[in-house]
Amino acid sequence: MKIFLIGPMGSGKSKIGKLLAERLNLTLIDTDKDIETKYEKKIVEIFESEGEKEFRKKESQFFASLTNLTDTIISTGGGIVESRSNIELLKKEKLVIFLNASVQKQHESTKGSKKRPLLNNTDSRKVLEHLYSKRLDLYQMVAKLELNGDNLSNEEMVEEIISFINV
What we know:
Strand content: 5-15%
Low-confidence stretches: none
Mean pLDDT: 92
Strand order of the largest sheet: 2-3-1-4-5
Structural class: alpha/beta
CATH class: Alpha Beta
Largest sheet: 5 strands, parallel
Shape: globular
CATH superfamily: P-loop containing nucleotide triphosphate hydrolases
Radius of gyration: 15 Å
CATH architecture: 3-Layer(aba) Sandwich
Distance between the termini: 13 Å
CATH topology: Rossmann fold
Number of helices: 8
Helix content: 40-55%
Order of helices and strands: EHEHHHEHEHHEH
């Protein structure tokens, strides 16, 4: 079994991934954290030194390397759907869960964080609004289940996902 968690920054993918991995006794891969480990650089540093385009290239290469894994939960970065190759990989998967969240919730979850390069040095709420409108259709296009974190607790989302995969 392989479960993909997709959605915007601050939607709870890392937290839900951790909870699901514990409940289901599966390995958790958090693509952002694992990319940082692989390249021995924080994502912010990759953005600063190489730019977003190069980061997206590294992200897509890393993501493609995960396709043969089993018994894994893969928590993706918010921009994973910006690459055509990533979309094609996600379309082929059975368990792609879109953790949706309003821009307000995203903003509350991300404010003050320096780990999110797209939100640094700018009006973070406007950036979140732009990214959400740009990516929403892409998330929905590849998702097999959509859950809204505005209406559900983390525990309720985990229960919904477990019910969905056991159907």
